[in-house]
Design goal:
With 149 residues, the protein is mostly helical. It has 7 helices and no strands. It has a domain at 67-137. The chain has helices at residues 8-22, 49-52, 67-87, 92-100, 102-114, 119-128, 141-147. Helix 3 packs antiparallel against helix 4 and helix 5 crosses helix 6 (119-128). This is ELM2 domain-containing protein. It is found in: Nucleus. It comes from Oncorhynchus mykiss.
Length: 149
């Protein structure tokens, strides 16, 4: 490099300053993270699921569930939620809104888990309570007043 202002020493100094403020990328075996050995997935663990799950953990999804069955179950759960939304004095739009909410889907999935992935039992439980209580409706008016800022 030649020309005015192109001093190799200045270039090295400015590179060092940049590295000190913006960090450096270090490459090589001495700069790599040490990772532990891969632990088997709970279903692959010797002795089955129970040994891999500790007392503080709960398996809440079984990947072996058939996708088609799951989609049919979720459609039925959303239909129940839509019907319940319309029956509560709401319109068709209110029913569709209730069916499309994320908490309705989460409620359906939690109910399926609590029913040991038996869709029939889960749907029977959902008939009693197809739409979960909205978070804002979980509080009494007195609690809302006390906690408002």
């Amino acid at each position: 490099m030649s020309g005015p202002g192109c001093d190799l020493n200045n270039l090295t100094l400015s590179t060092r300053r940049l590295n000190s403020t913006q960090g450096e990328i270090r490459v090589g075996p001495s700069h790599q993270a040490k990772l532990p050995e891969l632990q088997p997935f709970p279903s692959e663990a010797p002795g089955g699921l129970g040994q891999a799950v500790t007392e503080n953990e709960e398996l809440v999804w079984m990947p072996g569930v058939n996708d088609c069955d799951l989609l049919m179950y979720l459609r039925a759960a959303r239909s129940m939620a839509a019907f319940a939304g319309m029956c509560d004095g709401g319109s068709t739009e209110d029913g569709c809104l209730a069916a499309s909410r994320d908490d309705t889907t989460l409620n359906a999935l939690n109910t399926l888990h609590e029913s040991c992935y038996d869709a029939g039992k889960a749907l029977q439980r959902l008939v009693k309570k197809p739409v979960p209580k909205l978070i804002e409706k979980c509080w009494s008016e007195d609690e809302v007043v006390r906690c408002s800022f």
